[in-house]
Every structure is written in structure tokens, then in C-alpha cells.
Amino acid sequence: MHFTSETLLDDGVVEREFTLGEIPGILWTPASASASAPAPLILMGHPGGLRYMRSRLTGRALRSAADGFATATIELPGSGDRPPSAQAEQARADLRRTITAGEPVDDELVDRLVLPLVEASVPEWQAALNALLALPEIDGPVGFSGGFISIGIRLATVEPRIAAAGLFAGSYVPRRMFEEARRVSIPLHVLLQWDDEGNDRQAALDLFDAFGSQEKTLQANLGGHTGVPAFAGEDAARFFARHLSRAAVPAGNG
Amino acid sequence: MHFTSETLLDDGVVEREFTLGEIPGILWTPASASASAPAPLILMGHPGGLRYMRSRLTGRALRSAADGFATATIELPGSGDRPPSAQAEQARADLRRTITAGEPVDDELVDRLVLPLVEASVPEWQAALNALLALPEIDGPVGFSGGFISIGIRLATVEPRIAAAGLFAGSYVPRRMFEEARRVSIPLHVLLQWDDEGNDRQAALDLFDAFGSQEKTLQANLGGHTGVPAFAGEDAARFFARHLSRAAVPAGNG
Question: Three-class SS of residue B249?
Fold first, then answer.
């Protein structure tokens, strides 16, 4: 992990760009984070394209820093400045054509859109987690927050260091991820936009039902994909404060 | 309205029992409430039986008082110390028999269980509202919170002084209330227990979909009817703080 830039933001939050091998990423740490008082970490998901998503991600990271959390994100394979994938480009072109033609998006296309990205990116998130937790100013517990719900599901299943996840039910989910969802056992806070034009509401409700977690909350708000109200961000922040604050972690789990 | 008892609770909250004609009720006011600084009011719904529900209702009222709100509730017709209704007793007996026999609860029975209570109780809640708002230490805006969702729907439709409602989707809802729900336009916070044994989850989701409000949030939590987690109460309290705090009310609406 190599830091390539460092910027001081409001309230003493430090924003650092980094590369992990060929993968670009960003780390935000609160002013309070130090080797003697390391900050818990939130891995922040997104749909791909760090440059385009930058200001929204920074806003969310600043909110988390106010609660004492470090936040980190990495670019997805095939997105942003990373080499494009012919397979992914083809799947996205097929999706556009299907939607334009008013045809249903079938399981085969959803699998092609999502599964290769999950397979390729989850080990990268785990490598990033290794590198981030090696920094003296960062420590567990670790949360996963946000976009690309299938990546969140897989991470929650395979990565025991993830202690809680705030997921956004706003994208296509392959059928096999419903099976993986049954094996998820960490606390979940799932956000759903009730009138999300690009999302299947019933599938999102079925997915919430499938999660195996003993503590899970679905928060559905009126509005489309990009209309998440400000108070929903506050509620998600409180979810992480409940589950990632050091005092909230049972002995042996932190 | 005649006050029949007065008790000082923690944090200076005053609990007063009252009667409004033959209807018993309880009013909780925060220490801050006075003629020069009147408190906004939350009408607190419940399934009937004030004596049985007392400690839970007091807990919720104390929470609201901490946010500066007065809270009031009245007994439902035919419940608690009020004269029983032969019609309501018959409907409840039919419900017990239907559930014991494992038969579906049909629309006719739901109508008999709920509609007479809505018809009889909503004018009583409005009379209570008149009496409460006449007290110098209480003023608008007014919220409705809690149980018996059909009463909340009807009040939100017919009573313009109700500015926001926090509803609990945990009881049978007659089909005609879905039509009334379309005419509801105030901000809503709807709580659903995902595994409520006595509630139809799909009907609750359909009802949430039907509400005409431009701001509406559904919060679904894992667990049965009585398993509402503590943080859900906190989230509901923040909903009211957003919508009933004097600063949050647009000019002409307070």
C-alpha cells in the first residue's frame, strides 16, 4: 500500500489516496485516530468509478469521521482508471439494450453483470483490509457500508473481520446470492428506495427476508434510486455507532 | 376535561390522569412545558386497555418528554374500565375461534373487529385534542404515535391538526382503510415487525405502498409483535423531533 497524496479536510480529517498494487483507493481518517487510539474502520462500497462518485463518498466519510471512524474504499475491477474488462463491457451493453427494448432483465444477464465482479473484487477488498489494519492508526471492528450489495453479501459471508454491514438494496442481485444471504449472521441495516426505477422491490424484500442475521433492519424510504433522504444517512451512521464503537463489541470480538 | 390525579415522575415530568366525559385518559407533560413555552403534543395510540398497557405507555411518554413533547392517550371504547360492547366482544370471540381453528381471518371479520372502533374512537380522539390544546402549557404541532394503525390512518385523513404520524403495522387493517391511506399526505414513519405472528406482512407492505404521503419511511425489524428493538423507539423519537419541533414547522402550519 503506497500513499500518493494527503489532504487535510474539515475537522482535521485526513484524506489519503493510495494504490494497492494496481488498485487505486482512498482512506479518510478522523483527527482522533492515532497509534494509541486507533479508529474502527468502515469499508465503503460503491457501484464503480471513484472519480465520478468522489464527492458523495467524501461526504459519507466525513460523516463517519465525526463518529470516530476511519473510512476506506477501493476502485472496482474494470471501473474508473482500471483496465476495462471486455466481458463486463459486453454485459453492460446487453443490459442497456435489454432495458431500452423494454425486455425483462433475466437471471443469466444478472449473473454475467454481477458475479464476475464479486469474484474479482472481494479478494481485493480483503487485501485492502489486510493493508489498512496494518496501519497503526486503524484497528477493528470493521464495517461494510453501501453500494454493490452483492459484494457486501459475499464479504459478510467470507470475511470474519466484518462485524456489521449497512447495505443499499439498489442493484440486481443474482439468485445464488440469496443462498449466500442465508449464511450472513452479522447485524445488518438495509436501505431500500421504495420507487427505485432500476431495482426490483419484491426481490429486495425477498433478499431482506433471506438474510440469516438475528439483528436486521430494513429501512424503506419513498423516492427513486438517488433520492435517499438525509435522515437515512443519519440512521445508518447510528447503526454503525451501535455496532462498531469499541464499547459495543463483546470481548474477544474486537 | 377533569384531572383526577397528578404524579411527579423523573426529570420533572408531570403525569395526570383525567376524564373527558366518561372517557379516562392520561397526560404527561415535560418539565419545560408552560404557558409561555407550550409543548408540542403527541397523541399516543394503543390497542385498548390502559391499565394493562400503562407501564409501556409511560416509558414512551417519558422518552417523548425528554425531547420536549407532551404526550396524551385515552381509553378506547369498550376497553379497560369503559362499558363493554357486545358487538366488539362477539367479534373478538369470533377472531379467537377462527385463529384456534387455523382458518384464515376474512375481510368481513376484520371489518367487524376494526371499523366500529375506528368510527367510535376517532371523534373521541378529536374531542381530547380540543381539550388538550385548550391547556395553556400545550400547543401544536400534533403527532399521532403507535398502536391501532386504522385509528391513526383515519385521524391522519380527517384531522388537519395532525402534522406527522408514527404508525405500528401490527394489526388487521380493513380493505377500506387502504383507500383512506391513499388520501394521507402527512409525513409517516411506519414500524413493522418482520415476523409478527398475528400480522400479515404482505398486507403491511401493501399498506405502506398505498400511503399518499410524499415523505414516508418503513422500518422493518427482525422479530415478533412484542420484539420491537430499543433503537426503533429512538428512530421513531427522532422522526417526531424532525417534524414536531417548532423550528421544523413551516409558517402557517404550527
Answer: coil
pLDDT for position A250? 46
Q: Smallest Cα–Cα separation from B70: which of B132, B8, B7? A: B132
Cell numbers given for A169: 438494496
Distance in angstroms (rounded) separating the CA atoms of residues A55 and A206: 32
Lowest-confidence region among B36-50, B159-173, B238-252: B238-252
Reply yes or no: is the peptide bond before residue A141 cis, omega within 30 of 0: yes
CA angle A135, A137, A143 (to 5 degrees): 85
Contact A239, A143 (CB under 8 A): no
B196 vs chain A: nearest CA distance in angstroms?
13
Q: Which of A205, A208, A219 has the CB atom closest to B217's CB atom?
A: A219
pLDDT tens for B68-113 read 999 999 999 999 999 999 999 999 999 999 988 989 889 999 999 9
CATH of domain B2-82+117-248: 3.40.50.1820
Express each pLDDT in B107-129 by its tens digit: 999 999 999 999 999 999 999 99
Residue A21: strand, helix, or coil: coil
Question: Can you give the residue ranges of every domain in chain B?
Answer: 2-82+117-248
Contact assignment for B222 to A217 by CB distance below 8 Å: yes
CATH code of domain A2-84+112-248? 3.40.50.1820
C-beta of residue B83 within 8 angstroms of C-beta of residue B104: no
Which ipTM score applies to this complex? 0.76
On chain A, the residues whose CB falls within 8 A of the CB of B229 are 215, 217
Are B220 and A217 in contact (CB < 8 Å)? yes
- Global pTM reads 0.84
Residue with cell 394489526: B171
Q: Mean pLDDT in chain A? A: 92
Cα B239 to the chain's mean position, in Å? Answer: 14
Give, for B14, the enclosing helix (H) or strand (E): strand B14-20
What is the grid cell recorded at B121?
374512537
